[in-house]
Specification:
The complex is a heterodimer of chains A (293) and B (361).
Chain A lengths: L12 H25 L3 H4 L14 H7 L3 H7 L9 H33 L3 H10 L5 H15 L5 H26 L2 H9 L4 H29 L3 H6 L7 H7 L1 E2 L2 E2 L1 H27 L10
Antiparallel strand pairs in A: 1-2
Helix pairs in contact in A: 1-13, 3-4, 3-13, 5-8, 5-10, 6-8, 8-10, 9-10, 10-13
Chain B lengths: L3 E9 L5 E10 L4 E5 L6 H9 L6 E6 L2 E2 L10 E4 L11 H11 L4 H14 L15 H13 L5 E5 L7 H18 L2 E6 L2 H7 L2 E6 L2 E6 L1 H6 L4 H6 L6 E10 L2 E5 L4 E3 L4 H4 L6 E6 L5 E3 L5 E11 L2 E8 L2 E8 L9 E5 L6 E3 L5 E4 L1
Parallel strand pairs in B: 3-8, 3-9, 6-7, 7-8
Antiparallel strand pairs in B: 1-2, 1-4, 4-5, 9-10, 11-12, 11-14, 12-13, 14-20, 15-19, 16-17, 16-19, 17-18, 20-21
The chains are: A mainly alpha (293), B alpha+beta (361).
The complex binds adenosine-5'-triphosphate and magnesium ion.
The site of magnesium ion has 4 residues of chain B, from helix 1.
Chain lengths: 293, 361
């Protein structure tokens, strides 16, 4: 058990200065993104830069969702085909959300098999992780060919399966660690009461690892939500995820920094909400009733 | 009340650990028996096999003559109190105790009645609302026991239930357990590596070592008639002195030669005739060796003196063997002092090379 110090740690003034500097560096991109999303075109890359929008506007947000010639002309987007960002939120939610859910669920079943039923031993775990050892680009080319054969290119299930497959190794490893922390005897005790092994996993161990599993889900959701390479190579307009949508605003007449910033800000919000929702599960510290003699 | 029979029970874990080997045990209905042995000798494995949480590699388990080797755990009527308690950390005391009943779909009222009944028996009525992390070890241990007792198992398996308690609590709980058994009249298998617990609580003790049964007998016989060297050296505190010897014949007399001393064992001629010129081990309990300033069977240098209440344990060294003896509390020799030690032949235990006992008086 961790020892908790009752005294407040004494932080010197230098440390405060360093912490504040680090904080500024970390927050600065978000700050810049935020102000850019409220700037009119003239201010995006003005020199010297504006540290605060001089004439704040919502037009960068507006053009993401509405096909309005006068508005698009103002941000210089008149050249490109309009695609409402709503679809990309929906598409990302489907492929990243369901892909993550699938990865976590299947990964958890695999983790139970490894941790509780001695399935595959270490060999299996290493094999699973090997999927992540080569850079994703190695897998992309064969996938393109393979997907075009089976008609999975540019489909929701096609991209979703790739996301599930490539995030599952993380899920297996992290969740196996969580399960290992829960004494096996808790499940055995429930088995004596008549639960099947599977019921024991879900009725006894699941409530105890739920926080960790949700944190794993958040971690994988962030990865999949911002995944670009697979989305770019395996879709062609039927499915448009947020990172791909982002590229729409790189026109041959210049990059539309304002709408890109606006989209980025909006794209972060769902993740933040998910994080807040699961926070209460994460904060709840677990001390297992089992004690070691 | 169930009579349990273990036949040639063997458990080899994945990875090749032989946790239990050709284990045979007959447990009378309603008996309180102990499995006693050092850490890792397969005690927990035996309990889990009986409970049905593990499948044996070989062998059979019979309850009242019926083969239950592959019967599901919940159909065996067995309760197991786990070594580390296995109390559900996310449930209150009440929820923990009622869990088994809820799974068995008893009515709310019946569940309440039975939980209250067992909580009263174990005197934990006031901690039913507490979460495990707010309970102390003794309370956890009782909740764990209550969880198991509440389902009224025919066979109760207890895996070192007292090992996490401190000494005084352990003695108290031990007495309560004994009382409990008289009330419950279940067949109880009690696992411990504490010989005092095993010898004081049980009708019979099964001494185990490295997955094998060494001896299964009454506490009295385990102490007085150890079947082999392992049991002799394991039971008793301080443990029995075991000294390697060879048997030699000189004319008409038989001698036991332990390098540092020789003793005349001609009177054991009938027993030892077959062992002439062979290696044996003699065992002698510290209580049966008397140290003195002059006169005895052999001389040895005092190595350490431990004061334990009314007595002193004197450990002495003769060449490369250490010998423990017990002296009155006012007999306090100096370290490195040479003392004489004596014992009587009829207090000896003699074991053959394989460790089997070949003689005691
Ligand atoms: N699940 C397992 N997989 C592999 N080996 C195991 C497993 N469980 C126990 N063992 C091994 O089997 C042997 C017997 O273990 P067991 O837990 O039955 O011993 P024990 O007598 O209960 O010991 P202790 O007094 O430490 O509780 C040990 O060597 C142990 O390491
Ligand atoms: Mg054990």
């Amino acid at each position: 058990m961790k020892r908790v110090s009752l005294e407040k740690p004494k932080i010197g003034i230098h440390l405060y200065v360093i912490l504040i500097l680090v904080l500024i560096i970390a927050i600065f991109p978000i700050y810049w993104l935020t102000i850019t999303s409220f700037k009119p075109k003239a201010e995006w890359i003005a020199s010297p830069p504006y540290w605060f929008p001089n004439s704040p506007t919502l037009i960068d947000y507006y053009v993401l969702f509405f096909s309005d010639p006068s508005a698009t002309a103002q941000v210089g987007a008149a050249f490109i085909a309009f695609k409402p960002a709503t679809k990309s939120f929906l598409d990302s939610a489907i492929v990243a959300g369901l892909g993550t859910a699938l990865a976590v669920f299947a990964g958890m079943l695999a983790a139970f098999a490894v941790s509780r039923h001695g399935f595959g031993g270490n060999t299996f775990l290493v094999l699973v992780l090997m999927l992540r050892m080569a850079p994703p680009i190695v897998a992309v080319i064969p996938l393109i060919v393979f997907y075009s054969f089976i008609g999975f290119t540019d489909t929701y299930h096609g991209l979703l399966l790739v996301y599930a497959t490539f995030s599952m190794p993380y899920a297996v490893w992290i969740i196996k660690g969580l399960i290992d922390e829960v004494p096996r005897e808790l499940e055995e005790s429930a088995r004596l009461d008549g639960l099947t092994p599977l019921q024991a996993h879900f009725k006894v161990t699941w409530p105890l690892i739920r926080g960790g599993v949700l944190a794993t889900a958040l971690f994988l959701l962030i990865l999949n939500w911002s995944e670009y390479l697979f989305a770019l190579m395996l879709t062609r307009g039927n499915v448009i995820t947020l990172p791909v949508q982002m590229t729409i605003y790189q026109t041959y007449a210049g990059v539309l920094y304002g709408p890109q910033a606006a989209l980025a800000i909006l794209a972060v919000i769902p993740l933040v909400i998910f994080g807040i929702v699961i926070r209460r599960f994460l904060a709840r510290g677990l001390t297992f009733g089992a004690v070691k003699g | 009340m169930t009579k349990i029979l273990l036949e040639d029970l063997t458990k080899i874990y994945e990875g090749g650990t032989v946790a239990l080997e050709d284990f045979n045990l007959e447990i009378e209905s309603g008996a309180f028996i102990s499995l006693l042995g050092p850490s890792g000798c397969g005690k927990t494995t035996t309990l889990k096999l009986i409970a049905g949480l593990l499948d044996p590699t070989k062998g059979r388990i019979l309850f009242d003559g019926e083969d239950v080797t592959y019967t599901l755990p919940q159909q065996r009527g067995v309760g197991l109190v786990f070594q580390d308690y296995a109390v559900f950390p996310h449930m209150t005391g009440y929820e923990n105790i009622s869990y088994g009943l809820k799974v068995r779909k008893l009515s709310k009222k019946e569940i309440r009645d039975r939980v209250i009944e067992v909580a009263n028996l174990l005197e934990i009525g006031d901690i039913l609302d507490k979460k495990p992390r707010e309970m102390n070890i003794s309370e956890l241990q009782r909740v764990s026991l209550a969880r198991t007792l509440v389902i009224k198992p025919k066979v109760l398996l207890l895996d070192e239930p007292l090992s996490n308690l401190d000494a005084s609590l352990r003695v108290r709980t031990r007495i309560e357990l004994k009382k409990l058994q008289r009330i419950l009249k279940q067949t109880i298998i009690y696992v411990t590596h504490d010989q005092v617990e095993a010898l004081t609580l049980s009708d019979k003790v099964a001494v185990m070592s490295m997955g094998k049964l060494q001896q299964y007998d009454t506490p009295k016989n385990i102490f007085l008639k150890p079947k082999n060297k392992f049991v002799a050296g394991f039971i008793g505190s301080p443990p029995m002195n075991l000294i390697p010897c060879s048997v030699i014949q000189k004319d008409e007399s038989l001698m036991m030669d332990a390098n540092t001393f020789k003793i005349d064992v001609t009177e054991l001629k009938d027993v030892l005739n077959d062992y002439v010129n062979k290696e044996v081990t003699i065992g002698i309990r510290p209580q049966d060796i008397t140290p003195s300033l002059k006169g005895g069977i052999f001389k040895a240098k005092v190595y350490s003196v431990e004061h334990i209440g009314m007595e002193n344990i004197i450990t002495a060294k003769a060449d490369d063997i250490m010998i423990k003896s017990i002296a009155q509390k006012d007999f306090i020799p100096n370290l490195d002092e040479e003392l004489w030690f004596k014992f009587e032949i009829n207090k000896l235990y003699i074991f053959d090379k394989e460790g089997e006992r070949i003689w005691r008086s």
